[in-house]
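ok so I'm stuck.
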Amino acid sequence: MHKKFTIFFTSLVIIISLVPLPELPLKNFSLNDKLMHLLTYFLLCTSWIRLRYIESKVLDSKYIYFVIIIAVFTEILQGITPINRHFEILDILANLLGIFMSLSLSYLYIFKNKKN
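replied:
not stuck anymore, here's the structure
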């Protein structure tokens, strides 16, 4: 069940990231937008970490790299494809911060549970 959710959520993030938008002016920095990026990639990374940990009781870096590739590649595609989206380095940074927070909390959770 968790595997299906993780794959569905990953697909949804990719699709929403690459769906064309109506004509919008170039947006300025928006804290809400960056927070959405952070939360989305926090949840996406946590989902993959949890999936791998449930399967094998280890954290596998290939899942983290997979989420990082999605975070960076979708943003690059927004800048180079004609979908009326814009590349923003701050979006990538918000994505990576969400991934880092997920990874950090996961390590703390696993380390705490292994001590007990």
